[in-house]
Amino acid sequence: MIQLSFTIALKYEIAQQPADFVFNILAARTPCQTVISENLSFEPAIPDGVHTDAVCGNFFTRVRAAPGTLQVRYEATVDIDHHREPPGMIEEVPIANIPPDVLGFIYPSRYCQSDRLLRLAAREFGHLRPGYWRVQAIRDWVMARTAFTPGSSNTTTSALDTIVEQVGVCRDFTHLMIALCRALNIPARFVTGIDYGAAVELGLPDFHAYVEVYLGNRWYSFDPTGITAPMGLVRIGTGRDAADVAFATMFGAVRSFPPVISITALDDPANGYFLPTHSQNALSSSAVGGY
Amino acid sequence: MIQLSFTIALKYEIAQQPADFVFNILAARTPCQTVISENLSFEPAIPDGVHTDAVCGNFFTRVRAAPGTLQVRYEATVDIDHHREPPGMIEEVPIANIPPDVLGFIYPSRYCQSDRLLRLAAREFGHLRPGYWRVQAIRDWVMARTAFTPGSSNTTTSALDTIVEQVGVCRDFTHLMIALCRALNIPARFVTGIDYGAAVELGLPDFHAYVEVYLGNRWYSFDPTGITAPMGLVRIGTGRDAADVAFATMFGAVRSFPPVISITALDDPANGYFLPTHSQNALSSSAVGGY
Amino acid sequence: MIQLSFTIALKYEIAQQPADFVFNILAARTPCQTVISENLSFEPAIPDGVHTDAVCGNFFTRVRAAPGTLQVRYEATVDIDHHREPPGMIEEVPIANIPPDVLGFIYPSRYCQSDRLLRLAAREFGHLRPGYWRVQAIRDWVMARTAFTPGSSNTTTSALDTIVEQVGVCRDFTHLMIALCRALNIPARFVTGIDYGAAVELGLPDFHAYVEVYLGNRWYSFDPTGITAPMGLVRIGTGRDAADVAFATMFGAVRSFPPVISITALDDPANGYFLPTHSQNALSSSAVGGY
Amino acid sequence: MIQLSFTIALKYEIAQQPADFVFNILAARTPCQTVISENLSFEPAIPDGVHTDAVCGNFFTRVRAAPGTLQVRYEATVDIDHHREPPGMIEEVPIANIPPDVLGFIYPSRYCQSDRLLRLAAREFGHLRPGYWRVQAIRDWVMARTAFTPGSSNTTTSALDTIVEQVGVCRDFTHLMIALCRALNIPARFVTGIDYGAAVELGLPDFHAYVEVYLGNRWYSFDPTGITAPMGLVRIGTGRDAADVAFATMFGAVRSFPPVISITALDDPANGYFLPTHSQNALSSSAVGGY
Predict the structure, then answer these.
(1) Is the ipTM of this complex over 0.90?
(2) Which of A1, A209, A259, C145 could crosslink A171 through cysteines, CB 3.0-4.6 Å?
(3) What is the mean pLDDT of chain C?
(4) What are phi and psi of B243, to 5 degrees?
């Protein structure tokens, strides 16, 4: 079991008019990821409303903030008991058997224009045996062809840009891997989280984006950037792509400051808590057939 | 009240391997649109499974067909009793009050890259009084700037192409109007249907695409092509854009034939059934706050 | 030596106003391609003016035609005595030594956005030994990854579309190969011509587009589609990309008919004329350092 | 008459291998712009070769620099005696009369995809009387719809991006205005220069990009950003778009520093030298029919 404790601190300056925010920063609840404790607070204090989306289970927090400074602080401790499976046993799911709520994740979306990648995906991966290893091959292909370069992309960059320019950040790697999976009719989705253990030289802890692919009978995690061990990821939001699960969406004249994030892992083998490591197994934080 | 009876006939040739299909051709059920009778049949007969999506209420029919010819026939009669409202009374909904399931329709999607149109939408429509008439102004702007030209676009054409090239078919008009609404934080979605009464010179009856915008407390219909009276539209599928609600999605080596569609309207004033006309009122086929 | 005789017949319907045309259909004159005879005629007869561009030597014919039918007929016989060179001897030219008039052909152009392909080109071809064989590797890469499919692209399709969608016609193959060469600072240009000996199953004889690359001290021919033997190509226009050398540019309300083209090769070995064949040598139809 | 004296200082750090540079920073020579004195120097001293392009008369300076620091300094004094013409007298040139060397400037280029803007240009400007004032209307349209925002675009941004996103820097305004002119068959080209008198709040003096349009029988200057008076512009390079006339193109591992530019104007009315002002006349720095 993994136990991760983390803090997310966000800060905004709101100009003359009140501004609306939709946050998606609460840790996901799944049969594999249990929230032991959490606290979300606003400074100044303001009422907030949380709603959960029906398809992915995201917790969206909506607030309306007055002009001035808004600080958001979220602290949580989660236990993660991944479903682990030997990769060689995990099959792709025939179209006819994909659960209805999962089917939408084979369609193209804002940043994952899979409809334009059908030939490329077929040429590169069509000859591989369907299953987990084929998806891993897609992940390796993206990682090998894309340079991780902070500042090289922006909020309009899509999978097509990344396949052409071969550079990006985690969000871009994720969009490209998703688009290639969907081009092969493999359901894939975008996940935001925070990660324990990324290389220090990549900068301060930050939100991370990675991929979940529906295989066998659940969603499995992949990190096409290769900068994290999936075992050390706390899952927050899931959606079709970055358009669905921004950690903060702002409406109004708002100035944002960089998020400040910290995370620690419990190292207590006597009680069954181990530090995240790279695993030979496929890892899932989802329920069977669900989110 | 409107009563429309229609038939949709689809035909496919499936090559050597069985192929999967997902159809989205069943008439929507809403408090305003009642299905009096319907029949969906396959020739040869094959088992089908219908599932309904949680967000939009679409009926997706999934089948697996053997090599050879597949013919699909759907016949239905629907009563449509639109919610009608004087346009001047209908307000836009503040972000804070948009229902959770509706909020996703302000985000960009595959064919509606509203994130890139923020300045353009603000310049063209930002000075207008929020409300139904502002949305109508968007609809008129799209209609005035876009030439309806069959064959001028393809399945990869998006709102950005249409704003640049100013030409398209119903799907393109719809994507552009949706993108402009979302750029102003007005929820908008893509609807497929079939229409009664489109001009004969535009060709044989076909599927139509149009827009629904969330205003006041429900979804209102707009046709940015101007070729139909919204009162004569039978609603079938709704989604973020065309990626969500293709009338047929095929998996495998399949050759498609053009759909054959016919539709008639009941003209029986004595019993309260009138032919569709252009209305001064805003029209909705949705429930309050729902789909 | 090769001798090719060909006819190009073009037909247009001009609506109510006179229309202007710029044609680029006259065979190029180079030290390697000699025009033995040629005749350009218009029906009805109209005055035409020919000008030659300073950079590439194209012959542009400008006419102004009255409403009605315009027929253009060009007949020519050319002798082609290619410069032939063993490929292994041909080096790339260092930037410092590229002739001034050639330097412009390393810059991006309308359909060849080489500036966005720097990483991709470096990854795929950067490790290869510079020279003719590296350019041949680019040609093979494009050919292997692109499906030749008439009707799959249009006049707005660019190299970026082709790298993503992996389908196109000769113009698209050509744009992609040019863009990849330029991304490696290898001058490359677009050539229009007509070809002797293309496979019959590809349809009627038509204009063809192919690539010339500046290597050693002259321009060498490559056909990334693989459908012709470069020895059987009559060179007509050269430019940065298709924007420069359309065989006809029309100004006004004009309806075009498909061009009708025929071509024959002289088979007279006794006098030194051989039919075009695939050659082991690199072929050039240019002067040293010139066009 | 205007007399401007200016200095351009460029600085580069070249890594382990020698690097090639192509500079385009020498003041243009035209019947209207006379170079009184100039000096180009390199530190360390290296041999350079200048060549002039046949179409636009640009002076390209090519050097090969060893690893280490390279500093380039160009000082010049130019007299500018603009051709001035009352705008109302200046006509557009019929296609049939456009000089051959000018004709290429109606075709689309890398950053000016005029081929996709035909309908938009016709709708916005097709009803206006052809001539200088129509071009001025295009210039005003671009200026009104585009926000001047440093850092909002990059080297891959094209006219299509700018028409959609309505933001950019001088280069983007210029590309969009050029594309719209060409969509109406009006020859237009990209000019780089340095400007006297731009508003201080826009930052330090820098290279500027602006438009020249072929009207009457010569090229006239327009600045769609509105931040300069065209009378205060020293013309350096001209080309189809930014791909042709970068002030510096680097080949190799080179780090660039921002250019340092200064400029002064001679204020000596007694000798006929006046400070640049906004003029009611159309201004040209070109010869009749030439560059």
Answers:
(1) yes
(2) A209
(3) 94
(4) -65, -25
B33's tokens: 């649109």
* Token code pair at residue B132: 């139904």
Token pair for C243? 């924007």
Nearest to D53 among C100, C116, C244 (CB): C100
Q: Which amino acid is at C120?
A: L
Chain A residues close to B96, C-beta within 8 Å: 20, 62, 64
Of B147, B164, B166, the CB nearest to D160: B164
Contact A166 C119 (CB under 8 A): yes
Residue type, B157: T
The chain B residue lying nearest D124, using CA atoms, is B145
Give the whole-angstrom CA distance, residue D231 versus residue D33: 12
Bridge partners of D22, per DSSP, are D62, D249
What is the C-alpha to C-alpha distance for residues C248 and C251, in angstroms, rounded to an integer? 10
> For B155, which of A103, A110, A115 is closest by C-beta distance?
A115
Cα B264 to chain center, whole Å?
Answer: 19
Which segments of chain B have a pLDDT < 50? none
Q: Please, are residues A23 and A99 in contact by the beta-carbon 8 Å criterion?
A: no
Q: State yes or no: pLDDT of A54 exceeds 80.
A: no
CB contact under 8 A, D107 and C110: yes
On average, the pLDDT of chain A sits at: 94
Please, which contacts does D149-153 make with residues 24 or more away whose CB atoms are closer than 8 Å? D150/D202, D150/D203
Which pLDDT does position B202 carry in this prediction?
67
pLDDT digits (tens, 9 = 90+) for C52-86: 887 788 999 999 999 999 999 999 999 999 999 99
Contact (Cβ atoms closer than 8 angstroms) between residue B242 and residue B175: yes
Tell me how close the Cα of B278 comes to any Cα of chain A, in angstroms. Answer: 34
Q: Return the amino acid letter for B269.
A: P
**Per-residue b or e along D139-157, where b marks 16 or more CB atoms closer than 10 Å to that residue's CB:** bebbbebbebeeebbeeeb
Nearest CA to A288 out of A94, A133, A83 is that of A83
**Angle, alpha carbons B212-B217-B223 (nearest 5°):** 20
A52-67 burial string, b = 16+ CB within 10 Å, else e?
ebebbbbbbbbbbbee
* Mean pLDDT in order along chain C per 10 residues (291 residues): 96 95 96 96 91 86 96 98 95 94 95 98 98 98 97 96 98 98 98 85 82 97 93 96 95 95 95 93 91 79
SS3 per residue for A87-143: HHHCCCCCHHHCCHHHHHHHCCECCECHHHCHHHHHHHHCCCCCCHHHHHHHHHHHH
Q: At what angle do helices C170-183 and C118-125 cross, to 10 degrees?
A: 80
Peptide bond into A44 cis (omega under 30): yes
β-bridge mates for residue C236, sequence order: none
Q: What is the C-alpha to C-alpha distance for residues D48 and D63, in angstroms, rounded to an integer?
A: 5
Report yes or no: D285 and D31 within 8 Å, Cβ to Cβ: no
Å between D116 CA and nearest CA of chain B: 6
Tokens of C50: 């020919």
Cα(B67)–Cα(B17) distance, rounded to whole angstroms?
A: 6
Pick the closest to residue C174 from C195, C154, C146, C200 (CA basis). Answer: C146
CB C102 within 8 A of CB C214: yes
Confidence (pLDDT) at C65: 95
Q: If chain D, 291 residues long, is cut into consecutive pieces of 10 residues, what is the mean pLDDT of each piece? A: 96 95 96 96 91 86 96 98 95 94 95 98 98 98 97 96 98 98 98 85 82 97 93 96 95 95 95 93 91 79
Contact call for residues C21 and C253 (beta carbons, < 8 A): no
- Selected residue of C55, C63, C95 to mutate for chain D interface (largest D Cβ count, 10 A): C95
